Amino acid sequence: MMSVPTQPPAAEPRPDVPWRRYVAIGDSFTEGLWDGDDQTGVKGWADRLAAALSARRVAAGQPPIEYANLAIRGRLARPIIAEQLGPALALKPDLVSLVGGGNDALRVTTDVNGIVALLDQAVAKLRAAGADVILANSADPVNSPIIKLTRGRVATLYNSIWSLGRRHGAYVVDLWGMKSLLDWRLWCRDRIHLTSEGHRRVANAALVALGLGPDDPDWDTPLPPRPAQTWQDQLAWNAQWAKEELVPWMVRHFKGQSSGDGRGPKRPWPLPIDPAPAVGPPLI
Questions:
Q1: What is the pLDDT of residues 54-72, one digit of tens each?
Q2: Cβ(56)–Cβ(279) under 8 Å?
Q3: Does a structural domain hold residue 281?
Q4: Among residues 4, 6, 17, 33, which one has the fewest Cβ atoms lying within 10 Å of its Cβ?
Q5: pTM
Q6: What is the CATH number for 117?
Q7: Are 178 and 205 in contact (CB under 8 A)?
Q8: Domain total for the chain?
Q9: 277 found inside a domain
């Protein structure tokens, strides 16, 4: 039976926010799809985390945190590290979130050991530069009728994330252990990206991983039960997803195209961020 490590009991939350400059690197998860849209802008868990950290610094009489987000949707682990790690280091952050490998895990031919080696080297460079590092594992795909076929690769990859965290002294956000993320109401219709409420909960999980108290103590409390679906409704829902999301993704994959082709980072420079609360009361 597959075994995934669990996070050790949380210590007493630390009262301070020592970080002054936070840089986020990764793929669509960190870019923020689909918390918002491409017309109004996307604002995901990393943006919400930065705003929460900034609010706490300002409340303590400190300058707001400076924040850059270099993540680009569709990126595999190798391009994330090749394209984003150097620019992130050049910004001289004291906190970096590096979350990648999810797009790789969707591919049958993925070399999980190779991804782990790349992440290992990247985290070592960040730590050597004096930055604290946030890593994250993946939400458990057990409830997805097709994506759950990747569960073995996902579990292997994200077991290794725990090892990386321990070896390098990095923080790990435990998405696999979040029971609330097993509810499809926290996911967009593509079943890969979170809703605004999902991103809000992950931002709270990141606060906890950093040793800080969450803005919402009920951040992982499951949503109220919803009426059970008939098998006909379930079948129609899965068929619509396959037609509108799975098939277009497969076509792009076979053509060697990415949803991030031609895109640059949405926030390339570390600017002070609005400290307005961003991870507090539920949005739904």
A1: 999 999 999 999 999 999 9
A2: no
A3: no
A4: 6
A5: 0.89
A6: 3.40.50.1110
A7: yes
A8: 1
A9: no
